[in-house]
Amino acid sequence: MLAASLKPGPSLAAFAPSTRRKPPAAVSFPAHARPHRRLLLAAAATAEGAGTAPSQVDTSSSSSTAAEAPPVDEARLAQLAADWQAARADKDQGKILKLPVLRANSGGLIVKFNSLQGFVPNPLLSPAHWCKDPQRPIQDVTKDLVGSSISVKVAEVNEEEKKLVFSEKDASWSTYSSLIKAGDIYDGIVGSVFHYGAFVHLQFPDGCYHLTGLVHISEVSWDLVQDVQDILNEGDAVKVMVVNIDTAKSRISLSIRQLEEDPLLETLDKVIPSDSDQYPNASITSSPSEIELLPGLDGICSELLQEDGITDVQFGRQALEKRVVSQDLELWLSNVPVKDNKFKLLARAGRQVQEVYLTTSLDQDGIKKAVQRVLGRVP
């Protein structure tokens, strides 16, 4: 008996595949899992074919689910349509709106317009916010505006693309542009700087910077300027003069150099002084043996002698100026009137300055026209 009990059992390989018992499959599906649903669907399909009740229960369940879908809010749709129409009307009328700021992102502000939300891009914000602290990032400035209200005008309305854009700059222009005029002088802060010019924010009597103008490269300095970025930097404090106001394009032209004395209006005795100790900005060469004419000047003088009323041309003093007004040869007229048939011209190129004396019967206006004709003939 002991030997029999120690006899090994039959190997699994002894069983035929058809008789091998398969291990039970583990089932971990919850009651509402897919296998159970398949059974229900199969049962319902079978019952439906037989015309029994389960088909009716399933159909009523689907109808109940469809009935629970939220109805279309006709009132809200009507309100949205009315607000889009109001936005278009406000844009056409140029109306200034006071809108609350809901939130800020890296690109600008989200504002509330009735049931709609609109966007104010950073470039369309008033410079008054940034100029309070020019060194502060604009994203930090806009965060402080959340919860406040700002004055804006509608800049763009596109209902199909759900695009509603507002501009605070446009509202500022409508409010403050009528207060400025050509010749006004303002303290300003330099904003964006490009090679062709710099945008300057103008400080108004209330201490805020409401409007922005452009200082073109030609109005930065009397010196020759190749790139404005070499002269001005963002955040610089400057004093500017209003040169022109284009109300149609909402543009202001500014000048820095016109606040300095215009060299074109200086007398020759001031530009090339007789007493160099009093005017250290120029070095004088008055000896005729040291005179070396500016390239092209002799040809111009020969042409001047061909003009009626000009009988003689002589060369006077030379000087080297500290600033470069033009690289090209230019002829400037003195604002000293003709006296004893004598008149002075000033030839300039680079830093070189040369006096030219004319003997003429022409008045100052006649000399100007003669010079213009000559410069038109000489290449």
Task: Kindly list the characteristics that best describe this protein.
379 residues; 15 strands; five-stranded antiparallel β-sheet; alpha+beta; single chain
Describe the 3D structure.
This protein is α+β, with helices and mostly antiparallel strands. Helices cover 27% and strands 31% of the residues. The strands form three sheets. It has a five-stranded antiparallel beta sheet. A five-stranded mixed barrel has the order 6-7-8-10-9. It has a five-stranded antiparallel beta sheet with strand order 11-12-15-14-13. The longest helix is centred in the N-terminal third of the chain and has 20 residues, at 74-93. The termini are far apart. Mean pLDDT is 78; it is low at 1-22, 24-66 and 275-289.
Topology:
Layout lengths: L1 H4 L28 H17 L2 H15 L6 H20 L3 E9 L2 E6 L2 E6 L5 H4 L7 H6 L5 E10 L4 E5 H9 L8 E10 L2 E7 L5 E8 L20 E10 L4 E5 L12 H4 L10 E4 L11 H8 L5 E12 L4 E8 L8 E9 L1 E9 L3 H14 L2
Parallel strand pairs: 8-10
Antiparallel strand pairs: 1-2, 1-4, 2-3, 4-5, 6-7, 6-9, 7-8, 9-10, 11-12, 12-15, 13-14, 14-15
Low-confidence stretches: 1-22, 24-66, 275-289
Radius of gyration: 43 Å
Strand content: 25-35%
Task: Quote the average pLDDT.
Answer: 78
Shape verdict = elongated
What is the straight-line distance between the termini?
Answer: 135 Å
Count of strand segments: 15
Largest sheet: 5 strands, antiparallel
Q: Helix and strand string, N-terminal first?
A: HHHHEEEHHEEHEEEEEHEHEEEEH
Name the structural class. Answer: alpha+beta
The percent range for helix content is 25-40%
Read across the widest sheet, the strand sequence of neighbours is 3-2-1-4-5
Q: Helical stretch count?
A: 10
